[in-house]
Amino acid sequence: MEKLVINGGKSLRGSVEINGAKNAAVAILPAAIIANTGKCVIDNIPDIEDVHCLERILKSLGCTVNKLDNNTLEIDSTDVNNFDACTEDVRRMRASYYFIGSLLARFKQARVELPGGCPIGVRPIDQHIKGFEALGAEVVIEHGAVKVKADRLVGTNIFFDVVSVGATINVMIAATLAEGVTTLENVAKEPHVVDVANFLNTMGADIKGAGTDVIRIRGVKELSGCSYSVIPDQIEAGTFMISAAATRGDITIKNVIPKHLESITAKLIEMGVVVEEGDDSVRVTVDGELKGVNIKTTPYPGFPTDIQQPMSSLLSTVPGRSMINESIYENRHKHTDELKKMGANIKVEGRVALIDGVEKLTGAVVVATDLRAGAAMVVAGLMAEGETEITNIEHIDRGYPHIEEKFRSLGADIHRVSCED
């Protein structure tokens, strides 16, 4: 096992390149299975553990996967004839459920073990199932796996009871080869939903409306391989923006789409942070006193739930009281117990965290309880006086490629070291 050791208190300065979006890549890679001719060459893929896990699942299903470089994969799914995705890799990652929609589209049946992922609260797949059944599939959950089968998939109107990124993408994938037109209403509008739709369209799908409340999919006969580049990671970019503010530094974050960062930018500016936007970059600096803010996480274009944990680390040393209302996941404040070990003054009441800013945080031994909580611990360690040790960093590696190298390039004293189990 490994841990991150940070000697904090250094003002971060310089520039950093953002990788491709994790949340887009983990849906695009399973969707590549639908192509029954040609190869998919996908670049700007983040070099993270979740992607490595998906590579292994694709190979287990019969895909030929070649790594052209650290951020480019070539996937040939021509000879795939296996619709049974039941491996340890499937069980350990949440996004493996995208294989249900992909295999259902291509083979009209699939068996996929129920996925795991970060322990941040209940994340049911009932809306996925609703969508598959509306398209004409029979869905059964037995022996820990989801089994779907359809004689044919037929387009229909589907209204999601709640806005769900996973269900929107999964049902959209399944509908690409359905007969007729499928209309999805009350859908998620996140940038990675749009990116998956663009990828499917590049393969030959006919999808319109991604990024709005209504997506329409006109079924086609087949999809074929293509070349595609994944969008930049909104959450990685936001984490570095927060780190610049937290260390009172000056960081230029490159390879971003500033439009995707608007809700984060708005809150940082409200706090007193200076954010300058370029065409594909943002520069974040602090030249005065910061003040507390109130945040409520909501679906895009609102404030992202994946950023609230790193933001809570920043707010823990901002004068005054701040409040974070987590409206997406009910169990996403567990990291606050770790921040308290470092001297933070945080009180959690249900889904609301009340944060009274303290003068400073101090280094401690803390745990990354999930992916974004791990990022929060890194931000806290960078701010803190003294040494911070972060364990369970396998969570961090699922979503942040080479995180210690990137922060070292900005002047941070951060190292990955081995530790006893």
Automatic annotation (TrEMBL):
The active site is at residue 118. GO terms for molecular function: UDP-N-acetylglucosamine 1-carboxyvinyltransferase activity. It catalyses: phosphoenolpyruvate + UDP-N-acetyl-alpha-D-glucosamine = UDP-N-acetyl-3-O-(1-carboxyvinyl)-alpha-D-glucosamine + phosphate. The keyword Cell cycle applies. It is found in: Cytoplasm. Its EC number is 2.5.1.7. GO terms for biological process: cell division; cell wall organization; peptidoglycan biosynthetic process; regulation of cell shape; UDP-N-acetylgalactosamine biosynthetic process. Pfam families: EPSP_synthase. HAMAP family: MurA. This is UDP-N-acetylglucosamine 1-carboxyvinyltransferase.
